[in-house]
Amino acid sequence: MNLDLQGIFDALLEGVIVLDAADRIELVNPEARRLLGAAHDVAPGKSLGEALGADHPVCAVVARVRRSGRASIHDEVEIPQRFESPIPVDVAVSNIGDAPRGRPAAIAIAMRDRSAARTLREEISERERQESYGHIAAGIAHEVRNPLGGIRGAAELIGMRSKDERSRKAASLIVGEVDRISGLVDELMIFARGDRLELKNVNIHRLLDTLLDLARLERGHEMIKIVRRYDPSLPEIEADESRLQQVFLNLVRNAMQAMEPKGGRLTVSTGMTLEHRLVGLDGRAQPTVRIRFQDEGPGIPESILGRLSTPFFTTKPKGTGLGLSVARHWVRCHGGRLRIDSVLGEGTRVDVDLPLYAPAQDAPAQDAADQETRS
After folding, report:
1. Which residues touch 22 (CB under 8 Å, ≥6 apart)?
2. Does the residue 361 lie in any domain?
3. Does 124 have pLDDT greater than 70?
4. Distance between CA atoms of 66 and 48, rounded to whole angstroms?
5. From the CB of residue 226, how many other CB atoms can be counted at a distance below 10 Å?
6. How confident is the model at residue 12 (pLDDT cuts 50, 70, 90)?
7. What's the rounded mean pLDDT across residues 131-135?
8. Which end of the chain is more exposed for a tag (fewer CB within 10 A), N or C?
């Protein structure tokens, strides 16, 4: 029976590369090319080092197997991509058959994309954090709101009874600070309330144009150039327009503030994602829209990148630390995800992935935590 070996490899869901004794590529399938992000370079007849570069992590694993003569398996190796974030890939490398003593053998490389598994872990972790924030928010609202009302009332009374300007100003200051704290509590309560989305068909480009024109008029953004790279074939999506506007405006302002005072370029792009689509409640992949915000700011240190969505964590002198966590909350309510990637000295990229159709919403439930705060 004649077997088309290349045809079999092409049908595999895993990436496969076969190297000869000189590390030249003999066979490679499309999935391997995709994972390596070098479709034109990884071709039969080329050496692996020539195609990927000697410092590539896959080349390092192959070199280790050559030295030891034993198979090697590495979990979630970060495979660099030319224009995207690195892809976590499980890499298994082993010798093939028997080679003459003292001579190298052929090598097989198997690669499995772990992006979906990592994304699922991140989403589960994020959901658990959001639920924790909700419990904390309910407790804060209960313990803080009632005393704030009393403080505000007392300050107003002092202001009305004061005969000197200094005391009236002090009372007014207290009232203003109480209102500011109340606003923060209300914003934090978003995590505890079961707010429903007002869904309708939304033109993402029209929404982006409106808020980008708004943001450009704000003081301090004169040195920032906005580049719009829209996919004209992008369909309307089912979403809550006001919530998405809140999300996108927060991300645009963060990007612009990161580039002050020197300025730079903010690139806003849209498109459909054909790979790593969102998964619906039925477990099936859904058509997914991606909105990307790319700035040329100083970048974010890796040590704090994972903490940016934590309520009240901020790197801004006057920030509340709620903007990004609230943005992530509303994206998640739409069945989407928000991802931040940053390189120091090069800038930050934020991707918002949204399904074409929002997930079905449950009937509005009574918010026990909110009811408790009113009692």
Report:
1. 47, 104
2. no
3. yes
4. 13
5. 17
6. confident
7. 71
8. N
pLDDT score for 368 = 38
Q: pLDDT at residue 311 above 70?
A: no
Q: What is the rounded radius of gyration, in angstroms, for the C-alpha atoms of the chain?
A: 27
Locus of tokens 């609230």: 326
Angle subtended at Cα 336 by Cα 15 and Cα 205, rounded to the nearest 5 degrees? 105
Query: Assign residue 276 a region: left if phi > 0, alpha if psi is -120 to 50, beta otherwise?
Result: left
Pairing verdict, β 224-229 and 264-273: parallel
**Gap between the Cα atoms of 361 and 219, Å rounded:** 39
Beta strands 106-113; 15-19: pairing state: antiparallel
Residue 138: which CATH number? 1.10.287
Mean pLDDT confidence for 306-322: 65
Amino acid at the residue 345: G
The Cα–Cα gap between 98 and 342 comes to 46
Cα–Cα nearest to 79, from 114, 48, 107: 114
Determine contact, residues 71/95, Cβ cutoff 8 Å. yes
Task: Kindly report the length of the chain.
Answer: 375
Q: Pull the structure tokens for residue 206.
A: 């029209």
What is the number of domains present in the chain? 3
- Residue 135's domain spans which residues? 118-191
Q: Is the dihedral of CA 161, 162, 168, 172 positive or negative?
A: negative
Q: What pLDDT is attached to residue 375?
A: 39
Out of 191, 212, 227, a domain closes at 191
Using DSSP bridges, classify how beta strands 106-113 and 87-96 pair: parallel, antiparallel or unpaired: antiparallel
